[in-house]
Structure formats: C-alpha cells, structure tokens
Protein 1
Amino acid sequence: MSRRRRPAALALALVLVAGACSDDAGPQAPGPDATDSTAGDGAAATGGQPETPPDVDNVSARLVKVADVAVPVAMAVRPGDDSVYVVEKAGRVRRVPRGQTSSPGATEGAPVLDLSGEVSTGSEQGLLGLTFNPDGSKLYVNYTDRAGDTRVVEYAFTDGRADTATRRELLFVDQPFANHNGGQVSFGPDAKLYIGLGDGGSANDPGDRAQNLGDILGKLLRIDPAPSGDRPYTIPPDNPFVGRSGARGEIWMYGLRNPWRFSWDRQTRDLWIGDVGQNAVEEIHFLAGAAPAGTNFGWPLVEGSRRNKGSNPDGAVLPIFEYGHDDGCSVTGGYVYRGSKVASLRGVYVYSDACSGTLWGVVQSGGEEAGQGTLDVGGADDLRVASFGEDSAGELYVLNLGGGLYRFE
C-alpha cells in the first residue's frame, strides 16, 4: 500500500534503532513509544472523522526546539501542571516548562524520578513509558529491569517529585527475549490504565503468545490501578475476557507484535495504534470510539494484510494503513492533531518511523484511509523519531533520538 519514496538512510548504527524489524532476537528499536494519551476534557465518544477529511498534502508546519533531552522516548502531561514530562531511555524523568521555546539550560533541575540504577538499557529496553493519573497525584512508569523483565510501578507525586518511598509495583512480566517489550502506559478517556505489551520477542512469536488469551504478551491491557484483594490492581468487570476460562481478564485487545505507541483522538476518542512489523510490513490500526473491546489484530498469523503463520483469524481487524520496508523499518505511532497552532494539520494522524525519520500523516473517513503522505515540516534536520507527545492543549511534540524535544508550530 505504500506510495512513499524512502528517504536517504539515516544513522542506523544507533543502538536504539539497529535491526528494528529483523527476524532474530537481536537488537531492535524500542518499537517506538509516545506519550500520555489521555483524551482531553469533554471529548465526545462519537468516533469517526469530519465529513471532509483534511488534505495531508496542504499541511505546512515547522518544528521548534523546546529542550535538549538525552535519548528521549516518551512524554506525558500532568493535569493542572504547566510543564511536560519527558522520559530518558536511561531511566530518568525530566520536567520541561511548557512555555519554553528554546533550550538554554535543557530541562529544569534534577530529575523528578531517577531509575537509572534499576533499568536495563539494551536496544529495546529502558524506561519506556510514563503517565499520570487523572488528578495528577500519582505517576506510573513502565520499564525493563536489570534482568530485562517488564515492571509497571506507581509512585505518589508530591512537591514536584516522585516519592520513591511510596513505590508500589502493579505488574511484573517475565520477558522471554530482550526485544518487543512494548512499554507504553496511558490513562484512557475512561480513566482506566492501559498497558501496551509486545509479544515477548524473537521472530514470528515462537510461543504464539499474541494469540493466546492466557498470556498477557502481545496485548493491550486495561486495569484499574486500585488494589483488589491480594492483587495490586483491579480488573474492570466490563473487560471482554473476564470470566472466560483460561483467559486473562486484564486483556483489552490482542494479536499485537510490538505496539509502539497508541493514542486516543482527544475529540472523537478513536483509538490509533502503531504496531511494529517484522520483515515486510509496518502497521497503523484504527478503531472508532464505539468499537468493541476484545479486538484481534491477527499477529503472528498475519503481518499487516499478509499471511505470516496462517490466515487472518475470523473477525480480526486489518490495519487502516500499512507500508513496506522500502519506506522504513519500525513505525512510531503518534497522534491525531487537535491543537490550534497549525490549522492545516487538524484532524491528521501524525506518525513516523525510527529508521527513516520522515514525518507522515494519514486521515480516515468512515474507518477507511482517506488520504496519506509526507508532511511539509521544516525546522529540524536528521530526525530519528522515537516518539510523539501531546500537551493538554492538544499541541504536538516530537521526541528525537538525537536529543531534542520539538513542538509543531
């Protein structure tokens, strides 16, 4: 389906993106991450797109550098706070004043959380995800520990810092391989905590975990972080597999290879997921706001719309858009732009690829692709996009592996 010409190769020797889609268990891109995806206040759960989708070819924008951050991979906003919070892959969370438009001193003061002594830093490992709860009193992170296993941890957030004395572990996941960790944590528009997990790594999902409802790998999970009995979180009773024999109640959607950033359209509550492919196809999934839970995206039986280890399962949802490896090798999912700084970008889902660095847009109408292309964006050279971020006003940020945090203007 790709209609793009691949740009010149970038510095792919960077460990973070090396071999992002190879068919072995070696180093790979962190399967790209984004930011806190919480929908804006008052978002209507209507789904869909305006009657006339925006024209991707007429988008004109520039990137303004906001701060220097070492290998940034995720961003979040805290309700009622005038800052954005940026994750460094090595294990630190930095505060950046939201009004900042240049980087004379990079970020503000000491890290608000420093886990650098607890985090593994292999190619797809590290501190990978960050979010705040809806009232801003708690901070949640997703990281790989020194053994390479996934941990999702809660901290109270007081006096501008994460209180490490309040550390509470919500989830531990034994990772069978070093790659495909997923890593995002985000509160959705329903105030539940969503956790993205890859299939556990290696090639072709050797354990067939993504299709196994008894395994949480290769899934999008949905939980309430409040404790319940002897469990550190609560499984919402309306999750689709609650009560099914042999199935994990935490599972919201399944059949994912390595979801490297998912987000909700703050206006429609539609869900978008960038799922990193293997050797052939990078996928972007779309689900309208009223779409049922329990969706199967087909991996590893299919890679995008192509057969991989079998046929597309009954009822599985194919990508709204996919592109081949002539155009990139590791999709970085983004956001539907709903800000006010770039009128021509409103309604466009913005995404990139960790290998190409090109900024692309796609729009949908009625759940079908209604236009896509390269975005006319200036202001930054040598982009290697690890993730995107969205602030409370809907303005869009780009996290560049080369060390910069940029904002669309």
Protein 2
Amino acid sequence: MSKSAFVRIKSGAYRTTDVSGQVFQLVEQYKSTAKGGYVTVKNGGKFPGFPEDIRVKVDGVASYEFVTEGDADVVDTVVDTAPVQTDEERMAEIAERFEILHEMTKAAVSGDIRAMIVSGPPGVGKSYGVEQEVEKACLFDMVAGKRLRAEVVKGSATPIGLYQALYKYSDPNCVLVFDDCDSILLDDVCLNLLKGALDSGKKRKISWLSESSTLRREGIPDSFEFRGSVIFITNLKFDTMKSQKLRDHLDALQSRCHYLDLTLDTMRDKVLRIKQIAKSGALFEDLEIDEIGQDEIVEFMDTNKMKLREMSLRMAIKIAQLYKSFPLRWKSLAQTTCMKSV
C-alpha cells in the first residue's frame, strides 16, 4: 500500500470509540464479514497500547474517503487545534439548514425558485418538509376545484415517463418533486431531459424526437416549454462522486439550479438530528410516549449507534414502537430486530 494512501473516516468506530472525521493511513480497504464491515488503518499513536494496525468498523466504502498525505496533515492539525463545537451549536446549524430547505420549498411551490437539488443521507427527514408544502398547495387546489399543481414522484422513472411528468406539470406555479429517483441520474436520456427542465435560460424547451405511440395516444407534443419548478431529492452527495462521467453530469445539474447539501455527513450529525427532532416533540408524538421514555430511546440509540442497522428517524420510530408495545423487553427486542448480526 502506498504511503500516500490516507482516508478520512466519515462514519466509523474503533472498539467503542467514535472516530468519525479522523484521518488514518490506509493499510487495507473495506472488507465485509459476518460480524460487520471494517477498514484496516495505521493506529498512528491515536490508541496507545493497541496494535499498530487496527480495524475501524464502518458500514461500507461510502463511510470513508481518500485524502492526500498533505490533506491529512492539514486535517489532523485542524482536529487538534480547532475549538470543539458543542452539540447545541451543531444542532442549531442543522436546524438552520432544514429551515432553509423549508423556505426554498415554499419559494419553489410559488414559482419564485425554478429548480433545487437537495442532498442528504436517508432517513433524516429531508423529504418530510418538502412533502408537507406540496400537500398544502394541493389542498388549496382541491378546495378551489382546480387541477393539482404538484406531484411527488418516488422510485425509478423511465425517460418517456419523465417526459410525460414534466409535460403534465409544465405550467407556471406547478412543481414536480423527484424523491429517491437516483436512477434518473444514471440514464443519459433522463439526464438530458432533467437538464432541460433545470436550465437557467429564459425559455426551457424540452423535446422528444423519437417516435412514440404513447405520447401520440395521450396527445402530448414532441416538444414544449417547461415553466414549472423541479425539486430533486437525493441520497447522493454530488461533491464526492468518484465516476468522472457521472460527476460531469452532476456538475452540469448543479450549475443550473440551487444545490442544498444538508451536511449530515457523520454519525454524530445523524444522532444530533434525531435528538433535535425528539426535543421538538415531533418525533414520537403519534405514539404518546412521555419525555422520560423519549430520552431513554434516544440514549439507547446513541449508545448503540455503531450497532444499529441504520441511524435514522425511521429507526427511532421502530424502536419507539417496541418501547410502547413491550415496555419490559424493548431493549432486547431492539437488539434482535434493529441491530446488525454479530
């Protein structure tokens, strides 16, 4: 292994110590075993009394990124000397990002913002606020007896299906939300259609130049002007994509619209996001769990963060359901159903 191979752990732990954000010299890349995945790195004196080569527990190759040796020196210096940010300060930053998401979604629904890409890990609530605004807009339309101006598209989309959806919501003040439709980014035809919808020019003309009986049957023209808004919600972090071809496409999309990265990159960030929503009272309100119980659940998740199958709001709800249904055995049941096999 080259001496210049260094990695920054985005989310991981050595034994019971969270090492998210720390930089190590790489010995061996990710391996998956029955007991979980790990990456082998040089101790570098960070854990005195332990072996020179240590195994850091991670969830996969996405849990770490390569940095140069020079970058590693800079990062280590920053880690050693920078003031430590408190949990309250970091939660305030996270809250501000989600407030920006809320405000920009309202602007997209009203037509003031034409295109936005929202990036963040799964299960942190990035879709929830967007869907709330869309539902609100559609409710007003239903009360007024108008055609619904917005739709949330989930899952995969074919090129012709994307063209149809863009045409259906091409009028001003219409908004089309793509949630968990990352397959669109892997299809050249879909990408070109999306680029057309996100274009920053005065007129956004979208064309379908291939013969299609489906479009003809539905009376959809082979070209139209798109005047609506698009919100694309993705789990991908555009800045760290390694495929140059895909990176070029993503750069082209970013240049055409607003790009909001929720910056929940570490395990600590995800835990703080869960604590933030729990503290607001919104996370467990449907289960009617008292404050003591809520604190127990969040503390359990924090203590077992590297063992849980995922750190997300969905996981918090699953554990809360066990707490509600099995008050004496919820922890053992959570260990069985919500944690990785060991």
Protein 3
Amino acid sequence: MWPSKSNEHTAEAESDSCSTPTEIAHQINDSGASFILIDPSLLPTLDEARPFLRRAFAPERVILLSKTPAAGSTTGSSYKTIHELLNNAPGVSERFDGDAADTTALVCYSSGTTGLPKGVETTHYNITSEIQSLSTGARHLLSGFDVTLGVLPFSHIYGLVMQFLQPITVGVPVVVLPRFQEIPVLEAIQKYKITHAFFVPPIFIILLNSNNVAKYDLSSLATVFSGAAPIGGEVSEAFAKKLDVVVLQAYGNTETTSTVTAGLTHEFLKRPGAISTVGKLMPTYQARLVDEDGEDHPERGELWVRGPSVMKGHLNNPEATKKALAPGGWYRTGDVCVRSEDGWYTVVDRIKELIKYKGFQVPPAELEALLLQHPDVLDAGVIGVYDKSQATELPRAYIVARGFEAGGNGEAEQKLGREIAAWVAGRVARHKRLVGGVILIPEIPKSPSGKILRKELRVRAEKEIEAYGLPPAPARL
C-alpha cells in the first residue's frame, strides 16, 4: 500500500516544488498575464505548457530572469533579459495614490478546499499596510546591522512579502538562494554573516538533525522565523538550543498579505511557552474568534480578521470571494485558535481541509477529482497524515478500486497503490504527490449529503500509522 520508490533523506527542502505545465497554464490563463518573466532553466516547462495557454506569448513577451541573453525554448527563439529592460528603463518611480492604491498589484494563487487554486488579488495598499505592520509588530530589522536569508519561493506570500519586500524597504539586504540546500545555506550564513532567516518546519528538521552545522561559524545568526505551517514546540526548542538562536513564530494567509500574528524578539524570550504560540495580533488588524453557531467567543473559535491588508478578493471568482469574506469585511481564515488572557494566539485546529505539505497548500478535492479520472478508481478520499520526522503533513489517498475487495490480496493491493501513486505523481506538482500512501478500502465514509467524512479517515489513519508506520521516507516518486 505504500509507494515503493524511495530514496534516502536528502538535505534539501522542497521549497522549489515546481508546478506542472497544466497548473502553470491555469494560473497564466486565469490571471490574464500578458508577459512572462522566467528563469531560463524553466523554459522547457513553459514549452510544455504552451498547448494549454490561451495566448501565444511571442518571444518579445517572455523575459528571462538572468544577466545575459540565452537561447530560448525548443523553438530556438532568443528572449530579452530583465537586465536589458532595466537598463533601458526611464528610472522614474510610478506612484499609486488615491484610487490607484486599491488596484491589484499582484496575484498569488492560494489553494482552496475545492477546485483549482484561486487567484488572490493583493492591492498596493494591502502590501504597504502589511509592510508597515511587520516593521512595527514583528522582528525589528536594522539597516547597517541585519542581513537576512531568503530561501523560500517568491511565489509564496511568506517568501515574497515577509522574506523579501519588508527587509528591503528598511534597507536590509536579503541573500537570495534558489532553494534550500543544506550546505549552501550554511555557507551563506557564515560568509554573509546572516542575522535573521525565514524558514518552514522541514528546514528546522533538516538542520536539527544535521552533522554539518557544527562545521560552520553560525554565530551571527540571532533569530529565525517559522511560518507557513505549524512547528512543534519540541522541535523549535531543540533548534533554538542547538544553534543558539531565538525561534519566532508567525501566522498568516495569502489572503491577508502574509502575517496576522507575530511578536518581537524580547516578547518571545520573556514569555514561557512562547514556542507553541504564533504571537499576538499585528498592528492594523482586528480579530474575532467565532464558534460553530456564528457567535463570538473570547477564548476559542475560528479566527476572523479584518484590516487594510485583507485581500481585495478572489480573481474572477465572486462566489469564492463571498464565501471567504463575511459581512463587514471579515476574512474567515478557516483556522481554529485559542487566545490567552493577554492576547497570545495558538492555532489548534483547522476548519478548512487543506493539507499543509512543507509550507505548501494541497487541496484534497483537487487530488480526489484527479484520482477519479484513473480507470481503476471508483471513489477516493484524501487527507493529510502527520510525519513527525519531517514536521509536515503528507498527502494520503484512500480509494475504492474497481474489481478489488480491500484486504483480499495484500500484494495486489500494494501493486495497484504504487501504480496509482505513480500515475498521480506524473500529473501534479511534487508537493501534491501521494507520499503519505495509497490505501484501498471498501467504502469512503460520507455524510447523508455526500460529504466525505475526513475525520473518520483521520481516525483510521492514526490507527494504521500506529500499527504499521508511515511509508518509507521521503518516498519521492
């Protein structure tokens, strides 16, 4: 039942997790993009996506993110580079004042619980408000002293706003690496005297278990932010002790232009048990905790927030916008939080069904819809199962298979499970692969209305993991 193809753990986090050609095409088409800025190494992927694009994208509309011209795609065309454009630019800043401040500045794609990823319209005012909030309510960065490390993808709101835009606006350099790889990161911290880094939980796990950390001078590193997914208190405490740093946690969403709760360094240091919380409400935000009956609760409930950094809405999807934003401009986060008497928040559950895999969002409904296209799959339910060794959830599929009685032939079931996992792996981005296993069961538990009862699948998974463990890690297909 486990995918059998596996490798030894590698000291690399999948923060680059490239999307498939069809996923890329969906985002390009949905956004209405008229130019493509691309790393030369990804040109083959763009060529594979071209048959699915609504626009031809002639060579003059494809800009390489490199210093020197390079051969283009398989067509042999040559593209201009970003440096050519910048050298020919007039050098005059454009202002977005008045009504222009509320126009869309960027669109990041956030996976919802149903369908394809949804475009989140982030305005100029959203971004500037968030940057001001971070400069006040999160770790204070000082120009001339701090140097930060950027290894997270800029397509992720955490990587774009918190890791990149906020530091440069206060004159703090960001050392950018294309992805997380253990040795290059350790070398960069030592060489550039990095003082502050932005990580996701799997990176903490890799460095915590690394024998290479002691080989480098990391004494400049003072603080590390953890975001995008929950991190256990034991992991963050052990990491802080090993590297002699302060681990800071924050919470946010694409729809809120990144961070909603955070804290200052001295606040995390002084507060007992701070490693298990995500901090206090950031400046400019208001928050509510709402129970299942829609009533406000002082201590526990779904976190609703509003403020100048909440998105304009979901691009081309008014229905999704309506579901996400409650009357009064409140954004329903889908996360259940508890709030202490002095205003510190801890995320304890999630109403939304998203799987958080190494900081990336994986919508179960998208994988279920794909699985139902497989000729041997009659029904499917997808959940996330937690892997403590990697500090992340792993996507797992439960399926009802054509012509199979679950439990009737273990070897045949495992073979089919591996085949289906490989079939899915060829059609989705790496972070959406079923590395948590493919399990054959007689029936997918559902409510009378037909909704998949994921809670029952989670209970079943906990028992299976207790008895059999997880698939061989990292089970990269």
Protein 4
Amino acid sequence: MANNQALLSAKAPIDFDLANNVEDFGGFAILDSSYVLSPGSSLSNILPTRDGLMIYKVQSGDNLSSIAANFGVSLNTVFWANPSLNKRKSLRVGQEVVILPISGVRHQVQEGETLTTIASHYNVNPEHILKYNKQVIVGNNIIIPGAKPTKKTTRYSQSKKLPRLADYFVVPTTGWNWGQLHYNNAVDIANACNTSIYAAAEGLVVKVRTGWNGGYGNYVIIEHPNGVSTRYAHLQKATTSVGQYLIQGDQIGHMGSSGNTHGPTGCHLHFEVTGAANPFAKR
C-alpha cells in the first residue's frame, strides 16, 4: 500500500461509501490518498500517527466545536486528548490537534496494569477497550471509549532531581519529535524507515541488541563520560558494535520499526536517557 495513505477512524463521518473504498485495519480504515487529498476535502489535513490516533492540522475557519463535530467525538474528548489547549484562546491555522476515533480518553499502560485493572479503573467494559485496541502492552497509548479522566491517571514527568543537560546532547536524528515523555524517560522521533541515527553525545557503545527485546526491538546503548547513558531503540539495523567509542554525531544505525511499534509504517526512534532529564521532552 502506498506510503501516502492516511489512517482514519471508520466511525468518522464521511460522505462517500466506506464499504467500497477502504481496507480493514484493526477497527480503523485506510483511505487511499485519492480520497483524502482530493481538492477541498475536509480530511486533507489529517496525519496518521501511532496507537489508533490521528493528528488534524487546523484550517481556516475551524474551531474546536466544529472539529469535534466533524470527527463525531465530544468536545471534552478533544480537550482531554490535548491538555495544552486553552479554551480561551483561538486555534491557529496549522496547529496540530490529536483526535481520538471515539469519545473517551487515552491512557498510557503502566507496569503491572492489565486489561481488567484498567477497565475497572475507568469503570468501563473490558470488551469495549478491546474493540478499539489490538493489544494492551506496557508503554502503549490505548483508547478508553466512553471514559473520563481520573485523578489517578498517571502522567510521566521529569524528576526535579535529574540533572538537566540540554547543551550536552544533540538531536540524534531528523524527523518529527512527538515530544511526549513516556516510559523510561524517553521520547519518540518519527521519520521514514532507514533514516540515519546518530550518537547524541560522545561515549562508549556498551550494548547492541537485535530481536524483540521486550518491545524495544533492535537497539543500541551508549555510556557517556559523565555517567549518563542513552538508548536508541526500534532500529532497522545498527551500524556500530560493542566497545566502539563514538564522537557526538557519529552514525550508530538506521531508523526502523522493530519491536513493539504501531501505525502505517511504525518507523520511529525511541530515544531514552538514564541519569539525566531527557532534553527533547516537550510535555
């Protein structure tokens, strides 16, 4: 299937026959670009993302109510999925808004959580969760249909005790930095498969692993002279080896979708920092 196809909820209101023009994709639908990118289409500003979500780029004349109505979700769902939105401020043209395929919330699965405990936490039927999520795996964002945020919902944040070394690291690849801090002090940077990955700082390569590896897929770990280490996961392949000392900016591998990844291609870098704040976390 072409790379320029877009991921869209099969439940979004569309004024043509879905049954004849889409492929099944685990509860969602893949629309061919000839439909999504047709002139004047209200869907032309949709970007596919991981975990069954969409990102909508705001167009002239949009407001939050109209966006929610167009996608068939509640206004609160839009706010809950976009905590940085301010109800009192106008949207900007080109601003990115996360869209869930149904009214509800998204939840990042924590260590020790199961489908049953998550369903109980939000007081929803486990079968309803499975309808919109293929798997419930630690670290994944899953959709909880019909749910509301709870005070116990966990959000990752940088520890105040972690040193902040913003000038020590460089961005290890090119692409779109998702910016959301998730498990193990990591961020995701998405781009095409085979995009080059570089050492964020000088250091010694202490691990190179291939395979599933608990969902990390193929990865490299570098220990830096200041005692901090960085992990580069979901690689297509590594181009370095254990024992090699790298200078900042040296290539260590290529972006891939190995391990636990989602979306049309799944290609992204999981960049993880141990011993310091992740300098590329935006939220």
